Amino acid sequence: MRREKKSRRGRKKVAIKILKEINEKDEKGDYIVVYDFGKRIPTEFYKGIEYLKEETKDDGIIINRWQKSVYYTNSKQIALAIKSLAEHYHAKVLVLRISEVL
Fold it and tell me: How many Å is the Cα radius of gyration of the chain?
């Protein structure tokens, strides 16, 4: 039981550490993060996303899952944090900024 608690703290620590390490100036806009884990998506990745949501909930930041391997956000820093989190769990990742919606 102790080991499970320790890993929970570790997941939160990874997501928050990644967010704090983003050195890019935040730019509001529309960003899509597309990732591929190859096999199955680790549950730790989704829990890390939940920690990011929790950490930024009062800042007007949107983090929405559009499909199994696609997230939308209105923050460049969060898009880069999701990218780093996915790469931490060995995914291939692409971040796109939407310039026009038709």
Answer: 14
Name the residue type at position 96. Answer: L
- 10-residue stretch averages of pLDDT, the chain, 102 residues long: 43 81 87 94 92 90 94 96 96 96 84
Q: How far apart are CA 28 and CA 88, in angstroms?
A: 24
Structure tokens at 57: 């909930």
How far apart CA 72 and CA 66 sit, in angstroms, is: 7
For the chain, the helix, strand and coil percentages under 3-state DSSP, each to the nearest 5: 50, 25, 25
Q: Which of 93, 64, 67 is nearest to 80 (CA)?
A: 93
Helix (H, G, I), strand (E, B) or coil at 71: strand
